[in-house]
């Protein structure tokens, strides 16, 4: 006898998705134009039509074990072609926001995506801790004036003000924390995506290079048919090169990169490249979003703004520290150094593991799981 399955829509999920950008999902009539115009949609059933249906019906569980939202690079072509103006591209983006908040076991991501006050409050709290570390009495390890001493006020002595070995240890600790949160959340995502699959572990091992290649290049983006997809991919690649270079300089090469006096070390030239591409790339993204240039910028969640703004401010304050230092201006150097860290540290410990930046691990994992699934399907056929 045929079984009848009753579907209970999760209304809370629908409401949450709408608040995250999927406000037009109910306009969808399942015509499938979006799937047919999406050049990245090679799955069966294809995205984003299937995800529109699941979202309309409030079926959260199948979406939690679906890699498809991460296979979309938001070129916006489907939204442009949708006659019902149901915004499937933005709904896929809203799904990624929702999924990011579900993968995170700490609950911070959920708080931040649900409330702007929480997101800004957490960033502000971490920034305040950084400022306090530099302004509390010197026996706490740092000290704006008390530790630096009168000599460091007559000429730049950055390592007197912020001992490089202490900052380097703190950097390493931050990198470990960041890695732990990112990888533990990625492991939760991987478990969700694969728990119902019966695929041998050797298939996953064979596809590991795919994940690493995608993580480094995000080359799948080039497959989007929208006119500016290649431009967006190249800009993203350039930005990532600057970000990874700067992260490496700060976490691994800080003893050389943080110069104490007004001289220039050769690592500074690598810093110039990283700062240049971060300023141009992030500034360009901010301008595109502010001007709503393109489908993908029509709706902006707070997390979309914080992502490039914090990056731009980090690069701008970093280069100001450098300029003040080589100009031998002690006080402006020290103050700007604290401002720089009060922006960079919250960005690294809050936005990267819990905000939009987490896509740097979630997307390659989804592409990896999808590739392994397709391999298994092809073998069975
Ligand atoms: S989102 Fe638009 S194009 Fe896609 S199936 Fe629904 S109505 Fe059709
Ligand atoms: S936004 Fe682009 S990549 Fe994403 S589903 Fe639509 S057409 Fe495909």
The number of helices is 18
Intertermini distance: 29 Å
Q: Which ligands appear in the coordinates?
A: iron/sulfur cluster
The value of Rg in angstroms is 23 Å
Mean pLDDT: 90
Strand content: under 5%
Q: How would you describe the shape?
A: elongated
Element string (H = helix, E = strand): HHHHHHHHHHHHHHHHHH
Low confidence ranges: none
Structural class category: mainly alpha
Number of domains: 2
Helix content: 55-70%
**Based on DSSP secondary structure assignment, what is the total number of beta strands?**
0
Largest sheet: none
Description:
The chain is mostly helical and 381 residues long. It has 2 domains: 11-103, Alpha-helical ferredoxin (Fumarate Reductase Iron-sulfur Protein, Chain B, domain 2), CATH 1.10.1060.10; 110-380, no CATH class. It has helices at residues 11-19, 33-37, 49-56, 60-64, 77-81, 88-103, 108-114, 116-135, 151-154, 158-161, 164-194, 201-217, 229-251, 254-257, 267-290, 302-326, 330-354, 359-380. Helix 7 crosses helix 8 and helix 12 (201-217) crosses helix 18. The two termini are 29 Å apart. The model has no long low-confidence stretch (mean pLDDT 90). The structure holds iron/sulfur cluster (SF4) (2 copies).
């Amino acid at each position: 006898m045929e079984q009848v399955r009753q579907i209970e829509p999760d209304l809370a999920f629908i409401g949450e998705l709408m608040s995250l950008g999927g406000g037009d999902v109910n306009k969808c009539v399942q015509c499938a134009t979006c799937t047919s115009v999406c050049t990245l949609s090679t799955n069966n059933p294809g995205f984003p039509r299937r995800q529109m249906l699941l979202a309309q019906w409030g079926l959260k569980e199948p979406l939690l074990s679906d890699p498809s939202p991460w296979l979309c690079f938001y070129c916006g072509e489907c939204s442009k072609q949708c006659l019902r103006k149901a915004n499937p591209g933005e709904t896929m983006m809203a799904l990624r926001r929702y999924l990011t908040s579900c993968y995170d076991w700490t609950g911070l991501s959920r708080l931040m995506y649900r409330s702007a006050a929480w997101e800004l409050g957490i960033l502000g709290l971490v920034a305040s801790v950084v400022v306090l570390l530099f302004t509390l009495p010197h026996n706490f390890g740092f000290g704006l004036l008390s530790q630096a001493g009168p000599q460091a006020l007559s000429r730049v002595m950055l390592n007197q003000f912020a001992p490089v070995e202490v900052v380097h240890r703190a950097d390493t600790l931050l990198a470990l924390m960041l890695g732990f949160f990112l990888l533990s959340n990625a492991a939760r995502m991987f478990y969700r995506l694969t728990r119902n699959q019966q695929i041998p572990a050797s298939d996953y091992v064979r596809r590991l290079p795919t994940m690493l290649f995608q993580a480094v290049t995000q080359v799948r983006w080039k497959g989007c048919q929208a006119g500016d997809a290649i431009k967006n991919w190249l800009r993203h690649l350039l930005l990532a090169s600057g970000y990874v270079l700067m992260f490496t300089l700060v976490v691994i090469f800080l003893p050389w990169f943080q110069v104490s006096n007004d001289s220039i070390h050769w690592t500074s030239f690598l810093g110039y490249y990283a700062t240049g591409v971060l300023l141009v790339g992030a500034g360009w993204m901010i301008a595109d979003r502010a001007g709503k240039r393109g489908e993908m910028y029509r709706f902006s969640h707070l997390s979309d703004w914080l992502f490039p703004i914090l990056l731009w401010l980090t690069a701008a304050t970093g280069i100001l520290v450098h300029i003040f230092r080589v100009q031998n201006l002690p006080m402006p150097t020290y103050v700007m150094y604290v401002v720089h860290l009060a922006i960079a540290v919250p960005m690294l410990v809050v936005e990267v593991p819990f905000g939009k930046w987490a896509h740097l691990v979630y997307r390659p994992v989804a592409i990896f799981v999808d590739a392994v699934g397709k391999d298994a399907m092809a073998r069975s056929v």
